[in-house]
Structure formats: structure tokens, C-alpha cells
Amino acid sequence: MILPRGRALLLACGLVLGIGGPAAAVDISPHRALYSMTLGTTKQSSGVVAARGSMAFEWGETCDGWTVEQRYKAQHALR
User: Fold this and answer.
1) Residues 6+ apart with CB under 8 A from 11
2) By CB neighbour count within 10 A (0-12 exposed, 13-18 middle, 19+ buried), where does 15 fall?
3) Closest Cα partner for 15 from 4, 26, 24, 28?
4) For residues 35 and 70, is the Cβ–Cβ distance under 8 A?
5) pLDDT tens-digit map of 25-72
6) Which residues are bridge partners to 51 per DSSP?
7) Which residue among 10, 28, 46, 79 has the highest number of C-beta atoms inside a 10 angstrom radius?
């Protein structure tokens, strides 16, 4: 069986940690993260000369599950 790269890595970590069986309980804390983004490089033919923005990511707990909220703001400059 061939697994995608991410799944193969998770499986390998699970085997090393001895959790290859049923899912083990994990404590995950709700959190909020804010990221600032800027364009590092661009191709000459793309027509984009600059880009910047921000991303907000929030992971929260509800009575019977989790919520995920993502917000993006982006600005770009064209040739």
C-alpha cells in the first residue's frame, strides 16, 4: 500500500510512539493566531509586483466538537 506523504509520516510517528492502534486521547487547547504575509518573489511575466496581507486563525471548543475560523485580507499591486 502506498500512502500520501503526510499520512505516511503520521503512521511512522504513530508506530514510533506506540499508538498504531485506536486513536489515543489528546488534549488540544483552543487558540488564536495572527499572521502577517508578504510576497517574497514573483515571476516577471505574472504582472504582480507586490502583495501583502494578514490571516487570522482561530480554533475553539464547543459542547460537542471544535470550530475553526479563518479570515484573510490581501492587497496586491499589478504592473
Assistant:
1) 3, 20
2) exposed
3) 24
4) no
5) 667 788 899 999 998 888 888 888 889 999 999 988 888 888 899 999
6) 76
7) 10
- Using an 8 Å Cβ cutoff, are 36 and 54 in contact? yes
> CA distances (Å), 67 to each of 26, 27, 57, 64, in order?
17, 15, 11, 10
**First-residue to last-residue Cα distance in the chain:** 48
In terms of Cα–Cα distance, which of 64, 61, 63, 36 is closest to 51? 36
Which segments within the chain are labelled E, that is strand?
A: 31-38, 48-61, 66-78
Cα 44 from Cα 19, distance rounded (Å): 49
Q: Give the CB-side neighbour count of residue 23, counting CA atoms within 13 A.
A: 3
